[in-house]
# Entry
Amino acid sequence: MNKKLVSNILFYVLVTGIALIVLFPFLWMLSSSFKTQVDIISWPPKLFFEPTLRNYQKVFEEQDFLKYFLNSTIVGVASVGFSLILGLPAAYSIARYAQKKLAVFILLARLMPGISFLVPWYIVFSRLDLMDSYVALILSHMLISLPIVVWIMTTYFNTIPREMEESAMVDGATRQYAFYAIILPLSGPGIITATTLSFIFSWNNFMFSQVLSMEKTKTLPIAVYNFLSYAEVDWGGVMAAAVAIMTPAIILTMVFQKYVVKGLTMGAVKG
Amino acid sequence: MIQSSFTERNLKILFPLPAIIFVAMLMVFPVLYTLFLSFTNWNLTSGAPLSFVGFRSYARVLTEPRFLDALARTFAFTFFAVVIEGVLGVAIAIILNRAFVGKSVAKLLLLLPLVATPVAVGIVFNLFFDPTIGLANFILKSTGLPQGLWISSAASVLPSLIIVDVWQWTPMITLIVLAGLAGMSNEPIEAAHVDGASEWQILRYVTIPMLMPVILTAVILRLIDALKTFDIIFAMTGGGPGYASETLNIMGYKYSFEYFRMGQSSVILVVLFLVVFGCSLGIMKLRASSEI
# Structure
């Protein structure tokens, strides 16, 4: 009895410790974003301080973060949308005709280092006068989201019994019609998982935008990074920028928690 | 009645065709183009026309100490990060694998590092590791330990970056292993209980061996991503101090987009590609043979 109590206490101490380590950088980032520069560089670090909104003002008023916010959203939404258009039929075909090689081919885009595509992209997009354009960014981000869509949706379509469309086909429907009218309406959960995950990955992507975008189409991760390089000592502003970029992804994750977990763990666990 | 239009008969190929064309244009063509460039001496800043030099760029880059260091560093970073993440990730999953108050909150918390923007994570840890105002040294000081230079010193920069990677990606392994544990049959464990095995023995001889395929896949997924780590290194150190944290990915980036030596950078990118491709291929073979 006593032993059980001790082990329970030990367990909660351990879990709290883990939670604190996970949370700590977020809390620290949040608190620093409300600190004045003086409070940030004071030693020892201050736990209690008078909060200021000055850093957020700097980020949104002086740095034009709203524009970068909008850019990230445009690129994220468009790349995920087009990836769904290309990826859903592809995943259906892979699932129903067991096209394993094709699946591997598309998944390679997820495994290969992005930088091995970047030099040719840079050259070709420059020639086509597409540097700093939404087109180039959206295309590059599609290479992130398409494999995610195909991976998640192939797995998902495999869980839908073939009888679903086959019974419709017996009644004279084409397979194409059955896919759009029967299978897709059943695929909500899979599509939510794929959409959420690929949007977050696009949102967080740094390397592609760093090379392909300039002032006009600059996305948030680049803006945050630039903030660091030319405002090297303005930690409060940088932290406010970091909070601003992480908040949408975290909110999405909280809302779609179940789907995000499923997407991240899918495939590793047989399913 | 079976309608047998052209589309219908060729759905198998037509449905994935746009995706195939897309991947061919944005992935296959660029990789081949990079391979082609690696046999040239193309340099965007010199303005000289591109000319074929055979394996000369390879000979030059592959013998350069900076490259060999970056290659070794890439493997070292990956190895230590993934081993630590694997051990911690599995351990945490086993700890959390029981019903307790606040389990759903704990699982939500585990998701947060995974969705946090890596560049921003890097920046937050930059402040954390700052030798004079950072919390890392404050913690060391309050516990009486000697303070460190963290990412400001060549000796400690790589371990510091590994700490960040471990913080961000250990939860990934934990979540995958937790999902594996949830889908595992309880019978062997109960049988072991009946046979009088201790908790430790059950863990060591029943649970972990049964989980091995899941653990392996989780670790492998991490390994492939760790080889390509870019954002946190770029944001935190840019490969410095000196070249002390320069991995292949960072070096390839600098050669391409800071020095514009496309011929030589392509050699680096081909090597990185082969390293990742080789690992992925080996892994797929492994998965196929073990029927995971």
